[in-house]
Amino acid sequence: MTGIRIGSGPNPGLKDDRQALKVACEEFSAIFWGQVFAGLRQTVPEGGLFPESAGERIFKSMLDTEYARVIARSEGSLAQIMFQQLARSNREG
Questions:
Q1: Which tens digits make up the pLDDT trace of 30-70?
Q2: DSSP code of 93?
Q3: CB 70 within 8 A of CB 8
Q4: pTM for the structure as a whole
Q5: What are the domain boundaries of the chain?
């Protein structure tokens, strides 16, 4: 049994499949970059004039998440390279 395709036209589901693959690659890339940023934050020593509040930690985490999403959607990103490779192998297989 082959995969279920949703859509209409000569190649039903092709556009939807490619869009789903692109979104999955961007999400994977964003998670990857989020982990990189979290690791980098751990290398910065704590301390300073004022102690870090819970709100500041949450803000930094949200900011890192947004940076990761922007990087994942950027031209020439890991997500774009993954998408091109997976889309090509999907056509061949």
A1: 999 999 999 999 998 887 788 889 999 999 999 999 999 99
A2: -
A3: no
A4: 0.73
A5: 14-43+50-92
